[in-house]
Specification:
The chain is an alpha/beta fold. It has 16 helices and 14 strands.
Amino acid sequence: MRVVTTAQPLDVQPTPLALLLLGREADPKSERGVDCPGDLPAPSDPDLVERARAAKAKLGDKVFVLGHHYQRDEVIEFADVTGDSFKLARDAAARPDAEYIVFCGVHFMAESADILTGDDQQVVLPDLAAGCSMADMATAEQVAECWDVLTEAGVAEQVVPVSYMNSSADIKAFTGKHGGTICTSSNAKRALEWAFGQGDPSTTKVLFLPDQHLGRNTAVRDMGMTLDDCVVYNPHKPNGGLTAEELRAAKMILWRGHCSVHGRFSLDSVNDVRARIPGVNVLVHPECKHEVVAAADYVGSTEYIIKALEAAPAGSKWAIGTELNLVRRLANRFAAEDKEIVFLDKTVCFCSTMNRIDLPHLVWTLESLADGKVVNRIQVDEETERFAKLALERMLALP
């Protein structure tokens, strides 16, 4: 059954820009890389819903649709499974008989699915413009230059790269080549413990890519390091804006990247919601800034957030610091259990690139596949795939 939701219970006011990004207005120039011919009806058009159902039914077991938690409800309705980025990539790998994997997420997620699925499977992204601002903050060229800086400082041999799942295939391949591993927001601590165990713990360093906040929060909050143990490498400054002495003294070299959604939450957001809702529990994602995480009651991955709310007692109050589509869906899901769930900020915080995957694009994709035409296929080249898969396999082997 399709669940119709509204943002009203979350006290969130959409801005004109947010409406544009959500597809309520039109900007043809923003549709990069996608050719959707003809006039596409509004997502709420019943005909569009029926077209999606018909195309998916025609494809049958040939297609497997993955829906990330941050997707709109109109897309989630047609997902065979939902989850975070790595769970979905593993789900795709567990369906070797599916000829087409339609990934309703963003570009790096589809890349990961292509890396982990068989050569005879084709991964499709309904809108090639659905990227990730965080992943784009670390390019292969920038990271290679960073490694040169570390080499010149005499510390490269002591550095183990750890890259967040939210990174491009190129960055995952760099990580694999240099003896590092991938992590998710739920296993970042285990990944860092593994990395520091690869050499002398007193001298080993970690280059954490590309989200500085997850790296800092894990090191300081979960592993007992101090903020002074962390330095931030800025790829837009000479030598990353750091001296050789600073690199030698650091234990965590954090890439200057962040999530545009989680990075907007502030300490003021936390203080404001506590003032408005006495007794509220503040639950945030570890991609939030350190001061936000320090002020929160609970911190965890997307899956952790969902499980925490499932286990929460009736009548409890929660302010959630993560993407609005998920928060809104959870607020509606648990309303019947008298759980009050609000968005941590008062302004819209959709993931704009994730929201590029809408029902019109999904219909176009499914109908094209049903007609035998593969559109928007995501393919990782063989060498990149080999080293990226090596880094992913190291993560899968973590205790």
